[in-house]
Design a protein that fits this description.
about 55% helix; mainly alpha; 6 helices; elongated; disordered N terminus; about 120 residues; about 0% strand
Length: about 120
């Protein structure tokens, strides 16, 4: 099933994988195998990215830019925006309070419980 073009292009905070699927595979009528071969990676790795189950690396972004003329900066910004949105969605799970100079650090939660404080 093909994604609608407006689904991948209207959500700029979305994962870049579906965007690449629409802008490359759908518009050029390429298979995942053919597109993966064009950028020199395995079909499995490219499929995982296209299905938003793996993050975009700078190396893959450059490969996509070279093969399909989508600027790597655009793709990397999309990935960064996606990562920020994911982190913000998990903000409630992160127990950190704002640092105040002079506050007692001993009462703050420790990231690695059981480790000695560096001196």
């Amino acid at each position: 099933m093909m994604a609608r073009i407006d689904e991948a292009t209207s959500d700029h905070s979305g994962h870049p994988g579906p965007y690449v699927r629409v802008q490359v595979l759908d518009l050029l009528n390429l298979s995942v195998t053919d597109a993966a071969e064009a950028i020199g990676i395995t079909r499995a790795a490219f499929s995982t990215f296209l299905n938003a189950r793996a993050s975009l690396s700078a190396d893959m972004a450059l490969r996509i830019e070279k093969a399909f003329a989508i600027p790597m900066e655009h793709l990397m910004h999309m990935q960064c925006d996606f990562d920020i949105a994911q982190a913000r969605a998990r903000a409630g799970e992160i127990n950190v309070t704002r640092y105040v100079r002079g506050s007692t650090l001993a009462s703050r939660p420790r990231l690695f419980a059981g480790t000695a404080d560096p001196k």
